[in-house]
Specification:
heterodimer, A: 262 residues, alpha/beta, Rossmann fold, 29% strand, B: 339 residues, 28% helix, elongated
């Protein structure tokens, strides 16, 4: 079995509000000083989903990433966690991609890799939060797609997935090959061990350009970004304090339930 | 088919009636259709939809397209896509809207792919650009730290709409409109994904979206057991308990209680955030609450940048006297609930 996990490098979404800046002319977020990029958190959940299938049945797991200014030090983490191979696609022509263009490039890379029985992605990336690429990869490869998985098992040529709904979950089955997008409910990526770090050094890392995928130029974006800006906040929080915890708590209750609200 | 359909909305049902999100899209859709001099249509898939059509017209649709087939009673991407793709290609609307819901998230990307058009997910605002006449779609990005305004350069201009961000039209039962039945032939060979079971959360508490009071626990709660004090407070206030993502990921509380960008989006009268750091991801789900109260040990926590009032302190010390005093006040008012 061959599994491909698509992972995206993003600015650390846990950075404080104050560190987040945009360049309004370039319509881009500015990478903060001293905070390295990370693998988009849902993509880490997708890696964990793949490694659990590998644990259960044995599989070759390939992590695939497309982007610019990729930081191999960040993207090698999956190798240490148990992924077998890393493929990085970086090309000057990929500066301005929308989700559909990214999906077409990732699909071309999956074909070049030799296809996949299962393709995993995160449910959405932590930068643009669109949640389009997974479904679009499935459409490109003409595979069925199951979104927002919280549990995945693969058996007898079928994927069985618990798919999160707003008020519970449903159990969904699809024949392989298929695409599965993964939610944080599935669980965090396992800890990297010392042994994992050592073995990661021997694992292959392939760097490709669009020409390696027989693509001249990526498809043009279907949407145009007009403006990227940080909304103004004007709220001032009134901090309630008292002589001790009890006094403070009583003041808060008085304020909320005696005066303003009725 | 009716002529001149400019705005098409994909409707969703909750217990046999239009969902709130659908009514909100109809409200905004009506104004957009007026701006572009066209008609507003609603497309609904399901079984036995006659009453829904009347409701849709009363809430602003000029045309209602019904795809009725027992196979369409519950959502399934492979069946729904066939029907919707055909209907959109026939109608050729300028603008196509659906909800940012379980269905919209699953369906919109594939539909946009098949229609070869652009798509903006999770929009909170739609405006017509005066010069181009295209829709300016505004959506939060970077976990809601920033807003992006985009236009879609292909037709139909597609967007999913975040629940609670647009105003529904007033119900007007005297409105007139046309109801059309759509062919619902389904190519069974296209159906690859099968739903084999559905497990809905069984709960006695109020749903998060409907609650007037929400008590929300964050990472700082520390354990599953600690949520019982939040339950006690929620019950006292006639509300319900929610959580930010870390407690859900840790399994302290079911993920159906998660509030945030990828969970529920709520706007209660009173939102009490306990040991919640206030990540932008979480605030995306509750920032529209009428009053936000924060209790957190860390004075630097982001929650204090968005809360209306708060206490810097340990919830273990604050909540017991807070609950005691709140009970006294409410009992003094004859046990009436606060809001």
């Amino acid at each position: 079995m061959q599994i491909v996990v698509c992972i995206k490098q993003v600015l650390d979404p846990e950075m404080p509000y104050s560190a987040f800046k945009v360049d309004p002319d370039g319509k881009r977020a500015i990478p903060p000083q001293g905070t390295p990029p990370v693998i988009s958190p849902y993509d880490e959940n997708a890696l964990e989903a793949a490694l659990r299938v590998k644990d259960a049945h044995g599989a070759k797991v390939i992590a695939l990433s497309l982007g610019s200014r990729l930081a191999p030090s960040v993207l090698k983490k999956p190798l240490a966690a148990g992924v077998d191979e890393l493929v990085l696609i970086e090309d000057p022509a990929t500066g301005d991609l929308d989700s559909f263009a990214s999906a077409s490039i990732l699909a071309a890379a999956i074909r070049k890799i030799g296809g996949a029985d299962v393709v995993f992605t995160g449910r959405q990336a932590a930068d643009w939060d669109a949640g389009i690429a997974g479904c679009a990869i499935a459409e490109e490869l003409k595979m069925p797609c199951i979104t927002v998985a919280r549990k995945v098992s693969v058996q007898n040529g079928m994927a069985r997935v618990e798919r999160l709904l707003s008020d519970g979950f449903e159990v969904v089955e699809a024949p392989l090959p298929c695409v599965i997008t993964v939610d944080s409910d599935l669980g965090e990526l396992r800890q990297v061990t010392m042994q994992g770090l050592i073995s990661a050094k021997k694992k292959p890392v392939n760097a490709w350009r669009l020409s390696d995928l027989k693509l001249e130029s990526p498809p043009p974006p279907r949407c145009e970004l007009l403006e990227l800006y940080i909304p103004k906040r004007k709220r001032v929080c009134q901090i309630i304090s008292g002589e001790n915890a009890e006094d403070t708590a009583v003041k808060l209750a008085n304020r909320l339930f005696e005066e303003s609200m009725s | 088919m009716s002529e001149n359909i400019k705005v098409l909305i994909l409707g969703e049902l909750v217990k046999g009636s239009l969902s709130t999100n659908t009514r909100e899209m109809l409200g905004r859709g009506q104004e957009l259709a007026e701006d572009v001099n066209g008609r507003l249509a609603l497309l609904i898939l399901g079984d036995k939809l006659e009453l829904v059509a009347e409701e849709a017209i009363a809430y602003g649709a000029d045309d209602v397209y019904l795809a009725e087939n027992p196979l369409l009673k519950t959502y399934q991407a492979d069946t729904y896509l066939q029907i919707i793709e055909r209907a959109v290609k026939d109608m050729e609307p300028e603008i196509l809207l659906m909800g940012q819901t379980s269905i919209g998230r699953d369906l919109a990307p594939r539909l946009a792919f098949r229609l070869r058009t652009g798509l903006c997910m999770d929009c909170v605002q739609l405006d017509i650009e005066p010069v181009s006449g295209l829709v300016r779609m505004t959506r939060p990005v970077y976990g809601c730290k920033a807003l992006a305004a985009m236009i879609c350069k292909t037709k139909p201009q597609m967007a999913t709409i975040r629940p609670g961000t647009m105003k529904p039209a007033e119900l007007d039962k005297s409105r007139k409109g046309h109801v059309h039945a759509l062919a619902t032939d389904i190519d069974m060979s296209q159906i690859r994904v099968k739903v084999t079971a559905k497990l809905e959360e069984q709960t006695d508490s109020v749903s998060l979206e409907d609650a007037k009071v929400i008590v929300c626990g964050g990472r700082g709660m520390g354990s599953s057991d600690s949520f019982s004090i939040l339950e006690e407070l929620a019950q006292l206030l006639g509300g319900t308990v929610g959580a930010s993502r870390p407690p859900c990921d840790a399994g302290w509380i079911p993920s159906t209680r998660q509030i945030g960008l990828t969970g529920k989006i709520v706007s209660p009268n009173l939102y009490i955030a306990v040991a919640v750091s206030g990540s932008s991801q979480h605030m995306a789900g509750c920032a529209e609450s009428h009053t936000i109260v924060a209790i957190n040990k860390d004075p630097e926590a982001n929650i204090f940048a968005v809360a209306h009032c708060g206490i810097v302190g340990d919830y273990r010390e604050i909540l017991p006297p807070f609950i005691r005093r709140t009970r006294e006040i409410l009992e003094g008012k004859g046990g009436s609930r606060c809001c």
